[in-house]
Design a protein that fits this description.
By secondary structure, this protein is an alpha/beta fold. It has a domain at about 255-330. About 40% of the residues lie in helices and about 15% in strands. The protein is built from 14 helices and 15 strands. It has helices spanning about 15-30, 30-40, 45-65, 85-90, 140-145, 160-165, 185-205, 225-230, 255-275, 285-300, 345-350, 365-375, 390-405, 410-425; strands spanning about 1-5, 75-80, 90-95, 120-125, 175-180, 215, 235-240, 305-310, 315, 320, 335-340, 340-345, 355-360, 380-385, 435-440. The strands form four sheets. Strands 6-5-7-13-14-15 form a six-stranded mixed beta sheet, sandwiched between helices. Strands 2-1-3-4 form a four-stranded mixed beta sheet, with helices on one face. A three-stranded antiparallel beta sheet has the order 8-9-10, with helices on one face. Strand 5 (about 175-180), helix 7 and strand 6 (about 215) form a beta-alpha-beta unit. Helix 9 crosses helix 10 (about 285-300). The longest helix has 22 residues, at about 255-275. The chain starts with a strand and ends in a 9-residue tail after the last strand.
Length: about 450
């Protein structure tokens, strides 16, 4: 397939472009309220998406009138042939910007008659679609370049006939780590079904050889385990609630906070009793405030989240309030919440442990986490743009991995999954426009 770069102007350099973009931002800010009023899957959501998309289209064409009518040979890059015409004949658009416009839902581009996504994959990135110079390439990029020069004895160059050269027998298949997020028992069962659907999609492929295996841990993975083990994986699939932010309750996992409190509190109490002959309380210091200070110090030291404690004894974690003992703590904003606590993208990338491909099937993952993951080292990030119910989220993931298992590049796989879910749920169901991709749309499993 061909990818065409569309480089956005810097802010305040094109007045008309900035005007349309401001309107798009304003209109998209109403979407969550609209979903609350009419339902997550209301046709009114698609109407609003189209309204935002028309502003985006007007903005781009005001910058470049020919942005969506390129010449036949006007491609930034041509990806290696997979051997499936539906994939290989595609033209994709790669929106390039490092401004605040990167978080805009570009998959909603609408030309007044149809969504651009109906015919073209779309992704956004801070860099062009071409891979960097060899000295700064990641391993998957080198294999991507090499794949374009491979041919078999008969002169065929499609993936089916060259896979044995790209993936020798003694080379293990890439591993995708499945990470279940913290949630209630009902959603946990749905997350298990999502894992089963992904496993099935990876195994049933047209190549006769698995391009990747899914590693599903037998027990809940902890933040520290994820940080130390992620370097062993080529991709991560995080599955959490997609209709609302993950929340911690007394009955479903507040033990991780209690455990932290126990860890920082017990030794200090013993030392205090031995040194001062008192049983646990220092005169003039609120014990709750002191305890939360210790918990937050532990969080800051380990880099788990941004923690602060207010004068009233309420911990501020990532902008969310946590009142001790109220039974309704909220997770840090813009993080993955695991059963044993939150984990930040920056902590995964700190020691080079960020895998190239990350799919976060969780609440509003793309606008909240996409930029942070790619900045921390991920080459490609896929996630939902808006809240959606678990069933369409699970269906989308199944279609996406089915395409990846056949050798599709990620940008095309997102597009094709969108087409399938549109056929299944209807064009007025917002699920087909609810996902986006940040980073390299050219990444594929066979290069990992």
């Amino acid at each position: 397939m061909r990818w065409i770069d569309i480089i956005l102007p810097e802010t305040k350099t094109n007045q008309e472009f900035d005007k349309f973009m401001a309107e798009a931002l304003y209109l998209s800010s109403d979407l969550l309220v609209l979903q609350e009023q009419h339902g997550l899957d209301s046709p009114k959501v698609v109407d609003k998406m189209a309204e935002v998309g028309r502003r985006l289209f007007q903005a781009l064409t005001s910058h470049d009138a020919q942005a969506f009518t390129p010449a036949e040979n006007a491609a930034t890059i041509q990806t290696p042939q997979v051997g499936i015409p539906e994939h290989d004949e595609l033209v994709g658009y790669h929106i390039v910007t490092d401004s605040e416009y990167a978080a805009i839902p570009w998959t909603w581009l609408h030309n007044g008659l149809e969504f651009v996504m109906e015919k073209h994959p779309i992704c956004t990135a801070t860099t062009a679609s071409t891979v960097p110079e060899a000295t700064s390439q990641r391993p998957w990029m080198s294999r991507w370049v090499r794949a374009d020069f491979l041919v078999d004895e008969a002169g065929d160059s499609d993936l089916y006939n060259t896979l044995d050269q790209l993936r020798p027998e003694n080379l293990a298949a890439p591993e995708i780590l499945f990470v279940p997020g913290h949630t209630d028992e009902k959603i946990k069962r749905l997350i298990q079904r999502e894992a089963e659907a992904i496993q099935g999609a990876l195994r049933h492929n047209q190549l006769g050889q698995n391009l990747a295996n899914l590693d599903l841990p037998e027990k809940s993975i902890t933040p520290s385990e994820l940080k130390t083990q992620s370097i062993n994986y080529q991709a991560i699939h995080f599955a959490g609630p997609t209709s609302q932010p993950a929340a911690v309750s007394d009955t479903e996992g507040q033990f991780w906070m209690n455990r932290l409190i126990d860890e920082v509190n017990a030794p200090a109490d013993l030392e205090l009793e031995e040194a001062m002959g008192v049983e646990g309380e220092v005169i003039g210091v609120d014990p709750i405030t002191s305890l939360l200070d210790s918990v937050c110090d532990k969080y800051d030291t380990e880099g788990l989240t941004d923690s602060r404690v207010g004068s009233a004894g309420i911990a501020k974690m990532g902008g969310q309030s946590i009142a001790p003992g109220n039974g309704s703590t909220q997770p840090p904003a813009h993080t993955w919440l695991l059963d044993d606590g939150p984990v930040e993208p920056e902590s995964l990338g700190a020691n080079g442990g960020m895998p190239p491909l990350v799919f976060s099937n969780s609440y509003r993952a793309l606008p909240q986490l996409g930029m942070r993951f790619t900045t921390a080292g991920a080459s490609t990030f896929v996630g939902p743009i808006i809240p959606l119910f678990s069933r369409p989220a699970r269906i989308f993931a199944s279609y996406l991995y089915s395409n990846l298992a056949d050798g599709w590049c990620t940008g095309a796989a997102v597009w094709n999954a969108s087409q399938h879910i549109r056929q299944e749920l209807g064009s007025q169901h917002p699920a087909w426009l609810s996902y986006g991709l940040r980073g390299y749309g050219t990444l594929a499993l066979q290069y990992l």
